[in-house]
Design goal:
With about 375 residues, the chain is of the alpha/beta class. The chain is about 35% helix and about 25% strand. It has a seven-stranded parallel β-sheet with strand order 3-2-1-4-5-6-15, with helices on both faces. The protein has a seven-stranded mixed β-sheet with strand order 10-11-12-7-13-14-16. It has a two-stranded antiparallel sheet with strand order 8-9. The N and C termini lie far apart (about 40 Å).
Length: about 375
C-alpha cells in the first residue's frame, strides 16, 4: 500500500542500520524521502542511537534477530521491515509475517533465499515480501529486466562483475564469499546444472579497455531470473581488478589447499584472505542479453553499470529502490502481495531511470 493511499507517513524499520550498507540506506532515505519515519535498529542500541543522532526523522531501536521474536519489544509496528543483517534463522521474517508487515531482505545467499521463498509461499502473506538478495540488492536483476524488455525472447543472459580490491565491504560479504567449495545451481538451456565456484573461466573486456579472466560464482539471480524472465541460460562471473589475486585464488581452490584452509582452525586466516576492505573504489558490472526481436532477428544488448562510490553504495541504492517499490514512492508500482523478486517489475524502464537518479551510471551499447 502506498504512502499516499494510507494518508500517513510510512514507518520503515531498518535492521542492521548502523552497518556499512545500512547507514548509507538510512542517509539516502532521509535525503530522498524526509517524510518517511526511519527506525534504525540493531543488536546495539548505543550504535543505533549514534546513527539516529545524525539522521533526520529517525529513532533508534534495539532488535536482535537471534531472538525468537525480534519485534516483541517494540511499542508500535512499522509498515515495512528491511533486513540488512543476516536473518539466518528466519526469526525476523517469521515475526513480520505473523504481524502482516511487508518485508524486504537483501542479505541471503542462494540456498537461504530459496528456503525463505518456500517458507513465504507456504504462509501466503497479504503484504509484499521482496527477497532482494541478488547482486547489489537487485540492481543487476532490475537492469536485466530492462534489457530483456527490448527482446521478444531472451535466450541467454550473462553478467560479469569487476570487483575492486580497494572497495569498501561490510562483514556480511565475508560470509557470502566464504563458499568457494560449495557447488551451486545454474540454468543452461533450461536445465538445472551444478557448477563449482571459480570454474569456466572466460575473458571479459570491461570499461577503459581493461580485460580480465572472470569465473563463475554463486548469486541468487541465477535461480530467479530464468523463471521470472523466462531466460533458459543465465550465468554470473566475477573477477578482481588484480589478475595476480584472481590467479592466486584459482590456484588455491584448484590445488586443494583451500579445502584444508576451510577447516575451522583456519577461520582467521581465511577471513584475512577474503575480507580486506579498502577505502573505496568504483564497482562495475557488465550485463549482456542475447535473443530475438519481435521480427525474428537475432540481437544482443550490453549494459555496463558503474557506481563511482563502490559496491556498498550500489547495494544501498538497490535497497532504496526496493523500499520505494514496496512503499509506492518515486512513481514505482507496488509489488503484488506475497513473494516477489526485484526483476518482477511493472515498468523496468522507470526502475532503471530511478537507479540512475540515485547515482548509478548505466551505458547501453548500440544493439548488435
Amino acid at each position: 500500500m502506498s504512502e499516499a493511499s494510507r494518508g500517513k507517513p510510512s514507518r520503515l524499520l531498518i535492521v542492521g542500520a548502523y552497518g556499512v550498507v545500512g547507514e548509507q540506506i538510512a542517509e539516502i532515505m532521509a535525503r530522498e524521502h524526509p517524510s518517511v519515519e526511519l527506525w534504525l535498529a540493531g543488536r546495539s542500541l548505543e550504535k543505533a542511537a549514534a546513527l539516529a543522532s545524525n539522521i533526520p526523522a529517525s529513532i533508534a531501536c534495539r532488535i536482535d534477530i537471534e531472538d525468537a521474536d525480534p519485534l516483541c519489544g517494540l511499542e508500535a509496528m512499522p509498515d515495512l521491515i528491511l533486513a540488512v543483517a543476516n536473518d539466518a534463522s528466519n526469526n525476523l521474517l517469521r515475526a513480520a509475517l505473523d504481524r502482516n508487515i511487508a518485508y524486504i531482505d537483501i542479505t541471503r545467499w542462494t540456498e537461504r533465499m530459496v528456503h525463505a521463498g518456500d517458507y513465504v509461499r507456504a504462509r501466503k502473506p497479504s503484504q509484499p515480501v521482496l527477497l532482494a538478495s541478488g547482486w547489489m540488492a537487485g540492481v543487476v536483476a532490475t537492469v536485466s529486466a530492462h534489457l530483456a524488455s527490448m527482446f521478444d525472447r531472451v535466450e541467454q543472459l550473462e553478467f560479469d562483475v569487476l570487483f575492486a580490491l580497494k572497495d569498501k565491504a561490510g562483514p556480511n560479504s565475508f560470509e557470502y564469499a566464504d563458499r568457494l567449495r560449495v557447488p551451486f545451481t545454474v540454468s543452461i538451456g533450461g536445465k538445472s546444472v551444478k557448477k563449482m565456484p571459480l570454474s569456466d573461466p572466460k575473458q571479459v573486456a570491461f570499461s577503459g579497455g581493461r580485460t580480465f579472466t572472470a569465473v563463475r560464482f554463486d548469486t541468487p539471480d541465477q535461480v530467479t531470473l530464468p523463471g521470472d524472465l523466462g531466460i533458459p541460460t543465465v550465468a554470473s562471473r566475477v573477477t578482481y581488478d588484480d589478475a595476480k589475486v584472481m590467479g592466486f585464488m584459482r590456484f588455491m581452490v584448484g590445488s586443494g589447499i583451500w579445502s584444508v584452509l576451510s577447516l575451522p582452525l583456519f577461520d582467521s586466516l581465511r577471513r584475512s584472505l577474503l575480507f580486506n576492505p579498502g577505502p573505496g573504489a568504483p564497482h562495475e558490472v557488465q550485463i549482456t542479453a542475447a535473443g530475438k526481436r519481435a521480427d525474428g532477428s537475432e540481437a544482443r544488448e550490453t549494459g555496463t553499470l558503474v557506481d563511482p562510490l563502490g559496491q556498498t553504495h550500489m547495494t544501498a541504492i538497490g535497497a532504496v529502490l526496493q523500499i520505494e517499490r514496496v512503499l509506492g514512492l518515486s512513481g514505482l508500482a507496488v509489488p503484488i502481495s506475497g513473494l516477489s523478486y526485484p526483476e518482477k517489475l511493472a515498468d523496468p524502464a522507470r526502475a532503471v531511470e530511478r537507479l540512475k537518479e540515485l547515482g548509478l551510471q548505466l551505458l547501453i551499447d548500440p544493439p548488435v
